[in-house]
From TrEMBL:
Keywords: Leucine-rich repeat, Plant defense, Repeat. PANTHER family: DISEASE RESISTANCE PROTEIN (TIR-NBS CLASS)-RELATED, LEUCINE-RICH REPEAT-CONTAINING PROTEIN. Residues 24-195, 223-385 form the TIR domain. This is TIR domain-containing protein. The lineage of its organism: Eukaryota, Viridiplantae, Streptophyta, Embryophyta, Tracheophyta. It comes from Vitis vinifera. InterPro entries: Apaf_helical, Disease_R_plants, Leu-rich_rpt, Leu-rich_rpt_3, Leu-rich_rpt_typical-subtyp, LRR_dom_sf, NB-ARC, P-loop_NTPase. Pfam families: LRR_13, LRR_3, NB-ARC, TIR, WHD_ROQ1.
Amino acid sequence: MAFADPQSQRAPSSSSSSISTRGWNYDVFLSFMGEDTRHNFTDHLYRALDQKGIRTFRDHEELRRGEEIAAELLKAIEESRICVVILSKNYARSRWCLDELVKIMGWKKCMGQLVLPIFYQVDPSNVRKQKGSYEEALADHERNADEEGMSKIKRWREALWNVGKISGWCLKNGPEAHVIEEITSTIWKSLNRELLHVEKNLVGMDRRRVSSSSSSSTCIGPWEYEVFLSFRGQDTRQNFTDHLYAALSQKGIRTFRMDHTKGEMILPTTLRAIEMSRCFLVILSKNYAHSKWCLDELKKIMESRRQMGKLVFPVFYHVNPSDVRNQGESYGEALANHERKIPLENTQRMRAALREVGNLSGWHIQNGFESDFIEDITRVILMKFSQKLLQVDKNLIGMDYRLEDMEEIFPQIIDPLSNNVRMVGIYGFGGIGKTTMAKVLYNRIGAQFMITSFIANVREDSKSRGLLYLQKQLLHDILPKRKNFIRNVDEGIHMIKDRLCFKKVLLVLDDVDDLNQLEALAGDHNWFGPGSRIIVTTRDKHLLEVHEMDALYEAKKLDHKEAVELFCWNAFKQNHPKEDYKTLSNSVVHYVNGLPLGLKVLGCFLYGKTICQWESELQKLQREPNQEIQRVLKRSYDVLDYTQQQIFLDVACFFNGEDKDFVTRILDACNFYAKSGIGVLGDKCFITILDNKIWMHDLLQQMGRDIVRQECPKDPGKWSRLCYPEVVNRVLTRKMGTEAIEGILLNLSRLTRIHITTEAFVMMKNLRLLKIYWDLESAFMREDNKVKLSKDFEFPSYELRYLHWHGYPLESLPLGFYAEDLVELDMCYSSLKRLWEGDLLLEKLNTIRVSCSQHLIEIPDIIVSAPNLEKLILDGCSSLLEVHPSIGKLNKLILLNLKNCKKLICFPSIIDMKALEILNFSSCSGLKKFPNIQGNMENLLELYLASTAIEELPSSIGHLTGLVLLDLKWCKNLKSLPTSICKLKSLENLSLSGCSKLESFPEVTENMDNLKELLLDGTPIEVLPLSIERLKGLILLNLRKCKNLVSLSNGMCNLTSLETLIVSGCSQLNNLPRNLGSLQRLAQLHADGTAIAQPPDSIVLLRNLQVLIYPGCKILAPNSLGSLFSFWLLHGNSSNGIGLRLPSSFSSFRSLSNLDISDCKLIEGAIPNGICSLISLKKLDLSRNNFLSIPAGISELTNLKDLRLGQCQSLTGIPELPPSVRDIDAHNCTALLPEARIRISMEGDNFLAFCRATPLQMQRFQELGILLSYELFYILV
C-alpha cells in the first residue's frame, strides 16, 4: 500500500496561490466506475468524507446514461480542490470515466489540482502500462473507433499513464475501513493546510467525537461490551463487518469482534464476551451456517436472549430471511453437512436457533448502499445504549403529556427521518419547567444525532463570561480534544458554521434572553447539517419570533391533580398527602397555582414540619412570598424598562382578569404606551391574553405586589399602589396618605365599615386609579353600604384616569370634581340622582357606567360634557324617566344600554348616532314608541326591544342597513311589522317569540339572503306568506306553540338552506308541505304535539335528517303506521293487517341520530327489523307504547347509546343489545321478567334500568343469581 503525499504534487507557487484563493464548491471530486464500487467501497468512502464535513461530489447513477460526459461533471471537476480517482477492474471500460480522467489530469497540469489515485483490486503497473483488464478495455474501444476516436483513445492512454505514476493507495487485501480512514485523514490534513493559508483564524479541527469522549458518556454499567458482532469471517470480515465495526467504534460503542479462523470449539473468551455484552448483531451471510463455531455462538446468543432478555438484531446479508428461518438454500446444505458429522441433538438446537433469529426484526441487505444500512444500524444501537443523558428530577409529573402535546403541534421535532433543519422555541415564565422539558427532550432524542450539545444558563453566562465563552463551550462539544483558538465572536460564528454545516446536530440553548446570543450560537438554519434540531428555551416569546423559529411551544402550568402529586413527592415522599395534611396541601397547591418550581420549593421546605408550622407558613405566604421563588421570577422584571414595569405593577395590583381593551385605554391615558407594553409583557410571559382578558399567574401577581411593598415596608402611606383591604383601611382611617400613592383598590366585602374623610385623600395629589367595589354584588350587600362620606366630601381628581366606585353613597359627584384626563367612570349600584352638578368638561371620557343606580332620575347634557363618549350603560336605572335630547347627537357613541329602565317612556329622535353599534331597550316596559331615525345608521349591528310596550316599528327602521340582530321577543303589544323591514339586507337573526298580538308575518317583498334565524314561536300566526321563499339563507325556523297555525305553504320548501324546522305544539297543524323532501339540508324536525296524521311521502328524501321528534301521536292505528315510519317504510297490504314492506335501500336515513316516537300506541309488529339500517342512531325513545317485543335487528345499531322503554307495560323481552348502549330506561315495564330474552352485557357496560320492580321480578332475579346493585343497574326514577 502506497501513501499519497500531497506535497509531492504541488504545482508552482502561482498555481497554488490561485487554488487557495478560489471559492470552491467542493472539496473532493470522486471519479469511479459505478458497477464496481458504487454500493460498497465508494459509498463508504463518500460517507466517511461527508462525516468529516468534507464537501464531496459523487455523480448519481441516472447521470451515466449516454456516451458523452455531462457538462455538470466537467464543471464539478473544475470546482473541486482534490480529485480522488478509484481505479477498479472495469474503470477503463467506461468511456465516461476515461473522459473524466482526461479532464482531471488536464486540470491538474494547468491549475495544480491535487489528484489522489486508489488502485482498487488492480495493480498500479497495469493501469500505468494498460495491461490486464485495462488492455482488454482499450482494445475494445479501438475496434470501434474512427480517426477522431483513435485520437481520444490516445489521450485516455496518456491520462492512465500519468495517474498510474502518482503515489496513492493500493487496496487488494486487508480491512477497507482502515484504508478509508487513512484516505480521509490525508484529505483532511491537506484541506486544513490550505485553510491555514487562506484564513489564519481557522485552525484545522478534527470533526470526530473522539472515542474516549463518547464512551465516557455511554452508560456501560456491569457490561464490558455494548455490542457483540457474530459473523462469518470469509464472507464479510474485510468489507461489511469491517465498516460496521469501524462505524460503531467511531461512535464510542464498545464492540467485540473475533475472527473465527481456527479450531472447531468456541473459545472461552468468546463465551465470556457473549455474557458481558448488552446486545448482539448477528450478520447472517451466505456461508454463516457452514461454520460450526458461528452456529454454536448463535445458540449461546439466543439462550442469552431468552434467559436475560438481551437484544438481538439480525442482519440478513445477501440472504433471504426465510432461508435462515426455514434452512433453505445454502443454510439447508450447511445443516445437512453438519448432521453427517455431529449428533442430531446438536443440529436440532442449531436449527431452532436459526428459526428463532430468522423470526426477529432486523435489516435485510440485498440492494442499496451498505453505508446507509450501517448508519441506520449504528443509529439504532446509539438510541438504545449510547446516550449522553442529562440529570433531571426523578419526579417528572405531567412531562409525557407535554412532550406528546409538543410532538402533536410539531411532529418533526422527534421524527428521526426528517432531514430538514428545524428550530423550536419553548417559552414561559420562570419556574414553569422549560429547562426540564428541554432536558427530557434532549435525553429522549439525543441518540439520533451525530453531535449533541446542551448549553445551560445562556443568560447568566453571557453576562458574566461573554458570548465568546459560550461559543467555545459549543465548539468543545463538537471537538472535545481540540483547542478552539477563536479570539472574538465573529471568528466563533465562522468556525461554528464551518464545523457544523455538514453534521446532524442536536443543540439546546437554555434560558436565552437576547437576540445576540442566538445570532452567535445558532444564527441560521444553514449553519447546521440535514436533520439537525435546535431547541431554545426563553422567557421572551418575541425573541423566538424575531429569530423566525419553525415552531413555538408555550410551557404550561400543571393541572390540579399533577400539582398535588408533584407537591406530595417533595413534601411527603409519596404521591398523595398524609391524611391530616390534605386540606393544608390543597391550600399550598392552590397558592402555587401549578408552578412546578413553587411546588418543589415549598414541598421541600415543608417536609417533616408539623401542622402548626404549616399553618404559620401559609399565613406568612399570603403577605410575603418565598424568596427562593421570588428570585427566579424577578429576573425577568428587572430587565423591563420603566413604563413596562409600571404596567406590570398596575396589572398585578388592579387589572388581573380585566378586558385588554379596557386596560389599554386606562394605561394609555397614563402615558404608559400600553399597546406596546402589554405586548412586551405577553412576549416575556408575565401575562397571557385569553378571550381578550389579561391574566397573570398568582405568584407573579404576588411578586408585583411585594415589589410595591418593598418601596417602604413599614409605611404603606408611601407605597405607590394600595390593594390590600386592611392596608387601605389603615391608610385612610389614619390619614397616612402621601403623594406617592397612585392607585387604590378597596374590596368592601372584607371590611365591616369605613368612614372616609376629605382629609384622608388630601395629600394624594398623584392619584390615577381609584376602585372601590364589592366581591359579590348581592342586593343585601349593596343596600348595606359600608362606606360613610360627609356631604361635603371631596378627593383629588386632577390626575384621575379611572374612577370605579360601586355603591357610591352621595347623590352626585363632589362639587370640586375636576378630572380632565378621566377615561372611565363606573358608579354602579350608587345613590346618585344625577351624575354631576353644573358644567363639567370631560373630553377624554370614554365610558360611563351607572348600572343599577336606582335613584338616578336624569342624565346631563353629555354632548357638552363628554363629546367623545363611546359607551353609556344605564341598565337597571329604574327611576330614570327620560334622557337628555343631546344623547341622540352623540356621533362617537358605540354602545347605549338602557335595559330595565322601566320608567323610561320615550327616547329622543336619533339624529347623528352614526357610530352606534349596539342599542338596547330590553325590558323598558314603559317605552311605547321606538324613536324616529333620521339618516342612515349603517353601523348599528344589534337592536334589542324585547319586553317593551312598542306597538309598531317606524318605517325608518329601514335605515338600519347594517343591522344583524333584531330582538322583539315578548313585545305583547306589537301587532305588525312594516314592510320596510325587508330593506334590512344584513339581518341574520329576527326574534318575534311571544309577540301575542302578531297575527301575520309581512310579505317578504325583497330577498333577505342573510337571514339565518326566524323565531316566531308563541305567536298567533295562522299562515306563513308564500313569499317566505325569499329567505334563501334561513337555517332555523321556529314555530313552536303557534296554536293558530293550520298549514305551511309549499313556498317554504324552497328554503334550501333550512336545517332545523320546529312545529312542536302547533296543535291545529295537520300536515307538512308536500314537497318537504326538497329541504335537503334539513337535519332536525320537531313535530310533537301536532295534528299531523301522516307526513308527506317526500320525507324519504331527507337524507341528512338527524333528529326526528314525533312523540304523542295517539291517533295512529296500526294500518296507518306509515305516518310515523314513512321516512323508511312504503305502504302495502299483507295478511297480518299491518300492511308494511321495506324499501330496497335505507341509505337515505344514515344520518338520523335521534328518533323519538314515544306514546304512539305502537302494537306488536309495528317496529320493523329494518330499523337496523339507521346506522347513525344514538338515541331511540320508544316509551309508553304497547308492543310485546323489540326486533332483534336493534343489535346492529352500533352507535346506539340511549334506549328509552319506560312504561311499555306489555314488553316481555329485550333482545341482545349493541355494546355501545350505555343507558337503558325500562322503568314500569311490569311484564318484563328475567327469564325473558334479557341480555346484560358487562363487557359493553350496558345498564338495565328498573324502577318499582314487582316482588315477583325481584324474586326471579335473585333466583337467577343476578345481583341487584348500582354496579349493574342504573336506576331511573
